[in-house]
Amino acid sequence: MNLRLAAAFLKRDFKNQANYRVSLVLQLFGATLSMAILFFASRLFSADLAPQLRPYRADYFTFVLLGLAFHQYLGVTLYGFSGCVRQAQALGVLESMLVSPTPPWKIVVYSNLWNLTLVTLQVFLSLVVAVALFDAVFPQVNVVSAAVIFVLTLLALLPFGLISAGALLAFRRGDPISFAIASFSGLLGGVYYPVSILPDWLQHLSQIIPVTHAIEGIRQAMLKGAGLGDLKVPLLVLALTAAAGFPLAALFFNYALRKARREGSLTYQ
């Protein structure tokens, strides 16, 4: 990654966002409201899920809080990347953006660094509010493990954003693909409930979804203090997903771009 170029994109988008301070404040404030809704809703389910939650040493509120926090990153990659392409198409600047020396797929990734930064701020604020106002407890946090899982999660999810953006270019409709990926991840990834409550065949299916391992890894690191040695499976799956996903996603995005150029659909229609 070209750090100078990435910083330039991040600075550009920050300046644009700074012109809409009220919107930024409302987005961050929305995280606080979400915590309140989640807290009161969780009081309905804590007792019913207690046996399945016992291995995590957490109540339902804290359990789901971490699941939703990391599931947000999937959403921002899926919809943020395709949203960037759609906006550039609507403004008629997509083709001019893609003729620069920088590979097109990198431009799409750099253009979404601000979205990833913003969701990180929202996640951090959510955790702070949950601890300060709603008595969320993280009994044993392993900072190193949590940081490594966080970085690998971002790297593993970015290819899905490129695929979503490529689908928009190739088929002029990326939302169905994004929705399908997000829905299956929400169903099988253990966002709202432990994977252990699923039928056996769905539990096996859930293991091929990177989000499952990302969420399980962060819960183990922040609730049980798991070290890197205890997280070999999540770390390996996320690393392999990132290593294999980036080249494949870049190839698909470049193919979609060539297809769109041949068909003359780089502008919004």
Give a summary of the structure in a few sentences:
Helices cover about 75% and strands about 0% of the residues. The protein contains 12 helices and no strands.
Largest sheet: none
Instruction: Report the radius of gyration as a whole number of Å.
Output: 19 Å
Domains, number: 1
User: Helical segment tally?
Assistant: 12
> What is the helix fraction of residues, given as a range?
over 70%
Name the poorly predicted regions: none
* N- and C-termini, Cα separation: 32 Å
Strand content: under 5%
- Please state the structural category: mainly alpha
Q: Give the overall average pLDDT.
A: 81
> What is the string of helix and strand elements?
HHHHHHHHHHHH
Shape annotation:
globular
Structural notes for this entry:
- With 269 residues, this protein is an all-alpha fold.
- The protein has one domain.
- Helix content is 75%, strand content 0%.
- It has 12 helices and no strands.
- α8 packs antiparallel against α11.
- The longest helix is centred in the first third of the chain and has 32 residues, at 60-91.
- It is globular, with a radius of gyration of 19 Å.
- The mean pLDDT is 81.
List its traits.
single chain, 269 residues, mainly alpha, 12 helices, 0% strand, globular
List the SSEs and their pairings.
Layout: H1 3-18, H2 21-42, H3 50-53, H4 60-91, H5 94-97, H6 104-110, H7 113-134, H8 143-171, H9 175-188, H10 200-206, H11 210-223, H12 232-263
